[in-house]
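Continuing the batch. This is chain 6 of the set; chains 1 through 5 are on the previous pages. Same settings as before, nothing changed between runs. Recording input and output for traceability.
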Amino acid sequence: MDIYDKLQECIGFQWDEGNIRKIWEKHKVTPAECEQIFFNLPLIAAEDVKHSQKEIRFFTLGRTDLGRRLFAVFTIRKKLIRVISARNMSRKERKEYERS
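Output for chain 6:
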């Protein structure tokens, strides 16, 4: 099963207060913006093999409803998407995203 199939099975989001605060303080990204990228196309997602020690992690490139382009790291727990971190895309990531 690929990541897109796994995302289709998800029924919501799970948030950790520490991650919400960290993402806002470091990158000024709200939970709502993080959630929006999973519903807007294009969405690029792949397994983050390098950072998947304790659990499988994924990264995604997506855009918010207002067009903000975000890079997010997440995991899936019991059919819930748990965002670990999110930030604006780098220049290289934007170029890759725009090619899709």
